[in-house]
Structure of C1q domain-containing protein:
Amino acid sequence: MACFSNVSGFILILLSYNCDVSSGNNYDKQLSKMEEELLNMMEIILNLRRDLNKERTERKENSEVLNRKISQCTCEIQDMNRLQNYIDNVTVRSDVSECVDNKKIKNLEKGLAKEKVLRIMTGNKVSSLEKELEKFRNLVENKLNEQSDHLKVQKAKVTSFENDISQANVNVGSLQTDINNMASVIGSIRSDIHSTKGDTGERLRNVEAKIKTVEGNVENINTALKTDAPKIAFHARVSSNLSQFSPGQTIIFDDVYINLGNGYLRNRGVFRVPIEGIYIILVTVSTDARSAPDYEVVRNGTPISRASIAANTDIFIGSSCNAILSLNVGDEIWAKTGYYRSTDKIRGLLFSTFSVGLISN
């Protein structure tokens, strides 16, 4: 019973800790887990005690049955002893009486024979009862031994559970110490928050003022970029399929979509740099089936990028030459053929394009 009272006390302590400490979520989970384990231990111990009481009741009932059997056998033995005394008395009287006639002697002999048979039967019955009593005694002893072994096992389990409860008490104490430490840390943090609240507000106001200043500067920069930055870009394509090229021939991208700054010379297929700066150059060429031409992008006649197309199948294929260059005013960029067979073709429409754009000046 002391074990149960201790467990109940621990559960009440755990519940009170769970209510008092609101910020220790991890500890709440651990406490809930330990509460569940302690309740399971209590239930197991109660079941063990019920089993022990049941076995004690059965043992008491078996003892009572054995005592009744022994009492019954004792009464039967006493009855047999009285019958034996009676037979002995009759035998003595029959030996002493010499005046008894033949009829009485015959009757006496018959009675003696019956008494002899009764004595034999009584002896057999006593022997049978003794054997049955011995068998029952052995059965009861075996049952008692089994119950004793079972009680030892249950006692060991109870001891193990008590040890587990003791260890749980130690863990609860350690957990309570951690909770107290956490509460102290939380209190310290709250104090720091209250003490620095005024300074934090002032700092936030300063930061907001700086952010507004930076935003104004960024807006001014964006306005200047929109108004002052030059716009140089063009995009053109080959309007229809091209064939019968010779090596080194300029590829004319005759269909112009856009030409900001008028840097692209449509009739020549050349982009002439109007403003010094950094440019991105994009050239894509696609071929007809079974064509395998080479082409390259040049700056003032010097190759800066080269691509080879090997469409030696029944499918169409394309390739790209890309570059980012720092160009000077008057530099010219164009695309021209390299290795080229008379049967090779360049696909037009949207499949072959030439684009240049100013990134920075």
